[in-house]
Structures are given as structure tokens and as C-alpha cells.
Specification:
Blueprint lengths: L5 H17 L2 H19 L4 H20 L3 H36 L14 H16 L9 H9 L1 H4 L7 H9 L5 H33 L8 H32 L17 H7 L2 H12 L9 H19 L3 H20 L7 H23 L3 H11 L12 H4 L2 H13 L3 H9 L3 H24 L11
Helix pairs in contact: 1-2, 2-6, 3-4, 3-5, 3-6, 4-5, 9-10, 9-18, 9-20, 10-15, 10-16, 12-13, 13-14, 14-15, 15-16
């Protein structure tokens, strides 16, 4: 089930919300758990068992770890629980990728198995890993109530595409939380903002990117290639940040406070800063559970660079079973290490800041081309075209085929809303009663227009559903 669907907005959410808010406090977790299982089973009933098995494995593993006082036994239990979690993820997400590459390297013909990746498996697996590691570190107590653990792992607002919620950030909220009018009110507004990001900006610019990326590189010029790359960069940001806004808003409606997942990443002046602002829940997860255990920056410089390499290799692999994702992760890792070595991004000055910002934009836009391309060969050809290294073109469509007036408006809105300017204006306006009323009316209009777009569209999944 999609957040951006009539079924969710006008049937599922009102029913679940009404049942939750009218229920006794001791029953609210059960209502949310049942709703979350129904939400997942609506689109993926055959893979529900995998998620439930993940919950069971981590429930048993954590409770055995908490009971054991033998350090070696605890490590063995942790190892096998993590192995089980990663085995599910490996089989459904990476098995065929490994087989295909094995066949290529050794010139054999092992037949791949038809495997369809369960939606959300990358996200709920990382949440399960967060829980078992937190228990092992004695940062939290093992959850004795399996239903509460199940609620943490499969809570529907962030089940499919995050943000990745670490167990120690919400364990107390699972036990006790309050639902207030202010939380519900702000949650609804945040949901509407996320919905409008998805329907009005991401989907509109996605249509531009799709038209360009679906063609052979020789059929469009360098300018069109840049339009496609920028359109996809904006589509991805508004699609994913829109989902995160909706997830955070839904969490507030049910009393949960999830951490922010985006903080205007496109205003960054370095790739280091970019990763502090982009997909914050993933980067903080890798920092806490991979980078720091490897030694972080408390080691020699060479070892620190190796640790960063491993983290960004893992980041690329996490995003998908294809070489373009691996190279995308290494691309970012290379520039993180470059910035660490040179430290040039720390220099100040108006002109320097502009150069730094342009450098950062160039790096992440090229990276998004790798991310969007169907394969690395097409990505390299596309990047060559962006910089004028494709000499012969067979142009078929004029620019008017790719962009119309609506899409130009979407571009303008996307550029403005990618900076804090618009948000600051809203915050200032919201302090005055008249302006607050106008903002609320504006949000109502956004909701109506967004639902009209939903009604006019067919299927519009979020990009990160496939990760």
C-alpha cells in the first residue's frame, strides 16, 4: 500500500487513526501492530513470513544474549543472529547478482533463481540489526514482549522506506508515549507537505528524467543530458524526502517522534557535509554500527581512509545489487577521502564558498547519473555526453518534448524549496494569526491538488521502494 494512494489516505489511515485514538492506552500498540501487518500484507502477502521470521529470530537472539554472562557466548549468539538477518537480505537482494558475476568471471552457466525482493527488506533488516547490537552492547534491555519488538520492526509509517529508526531512539516511546492535539495537527501538516513533494514535484520532474534516460545517449545533446541529470537529482530528493516527511508526520499522529532524515542536502559545500544532510538515518546507522566499530577516526590516517572506503562501499551495496550502485558508493567515498586529505572544503571566503558549492553539486549530480542509469556502461556514456564527449548525435526530439510549462514551474519550485528560504518564510508567517490561517489554507489547497494528481495517475511508487 502506498502513502500516496486514495486507499491509504481515505480508507486505511482514517480507520486506523480513529481506532487508535479511541482505544485504551494498553491496546494502542496492538492496534498499530495489526495495522502495520495489514499494511505490509496488502502489497506483499507472500513475503510477510520473512518479516515475521526476522522478528522471531531477533527476539530469541536478543533474549539469549541478555541472559548470558559469558562474553564468548554472547559474541557467538550475536554473530549467528546477525548472520540470519543478513542471510535473508543476501538471498532476496543479492543472490542473483552474485550468480551472474560468478558466471561471467568463471565462464560457467549456473542458472539464476527467480527471486523477487520483498519491499522494505533493506530497511527493516537494518532496524533488526540495530536492536540486536544495542542489546549486545547493553545500551538497551532485551524486549520481553515480542509484540512490542514486532511493532518496532514493522511499524507502518517507516516500514517500507525509512527513516531507519534505531532501537535506542524509540524504545521508551514504544513503552509509553502521548498523543496530543499539537502532535496530530503538526503530523497532518507534515504529511501533506510530504505528499505534495511527491505528487507535485517529484512525479512531475520524474517524467522529464524518464523521457531522457530511456533514450540512447546519441539521441540527445549535452544540454538535454544536463536537464535529465538535474531533473532526476531533484526528483530523487523530493521523492525520498517527501516519503520521510509523510513517515515523520504519521509517526507524530500516533505519538512517535522520529529523527529527521534530510536537512537541505543540496546546499552543501562538500560531500562530507552532503552526507550529514542526506539520508541522515542511513549515514548515522553506518557511522554507529560500522564506522566507529572499525575504529572511526581514532586510528591512523591510512586506517581511517580504509574505514571510510568500507563504509561507502557498504553504502553503495546497500542501495542495490548492481555495479552502478557500487561505483556510486565508491564515487562518494573517493571524494570524502579526498576532502579528508586536503581539508580544502574548510576554507572560508565568499568566492571559495561558491566554488565549494558548485564542486559539491557537480559531484552529486554525476553520482545520481550512476544511480539512475540501468547499468554502468550507460552511465559512463551519459556522463560523457554531459561534457560534450559524444561527437555524433541523432537528435529526434526537440526540447519541447521533454519540458512543458508545468514542468518549468516544477523546476522553479524544486530549486526554491531545496533551500531553507521558503521554510524560514513559513516559520515567520506562522507566528501571526492571519498568516497562520493563510498557510493552513495553502496546505489545504496543496492536499486537494495532490489528491487530484493521485486520482489522475496510475501507479506511483516511491523510488526507494526498490532498495
Amino acid at each position: 500500500m502506498l502513502f500516496s494512494s486514495m486507499t491509504f489516505i481515505f480508507m486505511f489511515l482514517p480507520i486506523v487513526g480513529a481506532a487508535y485514538l479511541s482505544a485504551r492506552k494498553d491496546l494502542q500498540n496492538y492496534i498499530l501492530l495489526i495495522a502495520s501487518i495489514l499494511f505490509y500484507a496488502w502489497g506483499e502477502p507472500r513475503y510477510l513470513a520473512i518479516m515475521l521470521l526476522t522478528i522471531l529470530v531477533n527476539y530469541i537472539g536478543a533474549n539469549y544474549i541478555s541472559r548470558s554472562h559469558n562474553s564468548r557466548h554472547r559474541k557467538i549468539l550475536l554473530f549467528f543472529t546477525i548472520l540470519a538477518d543478513l542471510s535473508f537480505l543476501f538471498y532476496f537482494k543479492y543472490f542473483n547478482f552474485v550468480i551472474e558475476n560468478f558466471n561471467t568471471i568463471f565462464s560457467v552457466n549456473i542458472k539464476a533463481i527467480k527471486v523477487i525482493m520483498p519491499i522494505g527488506i533493506s530497511f527493516y533488516t537494518f532496524q533488526a540489526l540495530s536492536y540486536i547490537i544495542d542489546v549486545y552492547r547493553n545500551e538497551v534491555k532485551a524486549q520481553k514482549d515480542i509484540y512490542k519488538l514486532a511493532l518496532y520492526i514493522c511499524l507502518f509509517p517507516q516500514l517500507i522506506a525509512g527513516p531507519i529508526v534505531k532501537y535506542h531512539d524509540v524504545d521508551e516511546q514504544i513503552e509509553n508515549r502521548d498523543v496530543t492535539f499539537d502532535k496530530v495537527s503538526y503530523g497532518i501538516k507534515r504529511f501533506i507537505i510530504g505528499l505534495s513533494k511527491k505528487m507535485l514535484i517529484a512525479n512531475t520532474l520524474g517524467a522529464v528524467a524518464d523521457k531522457i534516460f530511456e533514450q540512447p545517449v546519441v539521441q540527445f545533446d549535452a544540454f538535454t543530458a544536463w536537464i535529465g541529470a538535474i531533473a532526476y537529482s531533484l526528483q530523487l530528493f523530493y521523492d525520498f524526502s517527501g516519503y520521510s516527511d509523510m513517515a515523520i508526520g504519521l509517526g507524530l499522529i500516533f505519538g512517535f517522534k522520529f529523527l529527521e532524515n534530510f536537512n537541505y542536502p543540496y546546499i552543501s559545500r562538500s560531500i562530507t557535509e552532503f552526507w550529514r544532510r542526506w539520508h541522515i538515518s542511513l549515514s548515522s546507522w553506518f557511522k554507529e554500527y560500522l564506522y566507529i566499530p572499525l575504529g572511526g577516526n581514532r586510528v591512523s590516517k591510512k586506517r581511517n581512509y580504509f574505514n571510510l572506503f568500507v563504509v561507502f562501499l557498504a553504502t553503495g551495496i546497500w542501495h542495490g545489487a548492481a555495479w552502478n550502485f557500487v561505483f556510486w558508493g565508491l564515487w562518494h567515498g573517493f571524494f570524502i577521502i579526498f576532502e579528508k586529505i586536503t581539508g580544502w572544503y574548510k576554507k572560508e571566503g565568499k568566492f571559495i564558498k561558491l566554488i565549494q558549492h558548485m564542486y559539491c553539486i557537480l559531484i552529486f549530480v554525476i553520482g545520481w547519473v550512476m544511480f539512475r542509469a540501468d547499468n554502468m556502461q550507460y552511465a559512463l556514456q551519459y556522463i560523457q555526453n554531459m561534457f560534450g564527449f559524444v561527437s555524433e548525435h541523432k537528435i529526434i526530439f526537440k526540447m519541447s518534448y521533454y519540458i512543458d510549462n508545468i514542468e518549468i514551474i516544477a523546476f522553479v519550485a524544486a530549486f526554491l524549496c531545496a533551500t531553507p528560504i521558503f521554510d524560514r518564510i513559513l516559520q515567520i508567517s506562522y507566528q501571526h494569526k492571519v498568516c497562520r490561517a493563510l498557510v493552513n489554507i495553502w496546505l489545504g489547497v496543496l492536499f486537494v491538488v495532490s489528491t487530484a494528481f493521485i486520482a489522475a495517475s496510475t501507479y506511483n511508487p516511491f523510488i526507494y521502494f526498490r532498495f
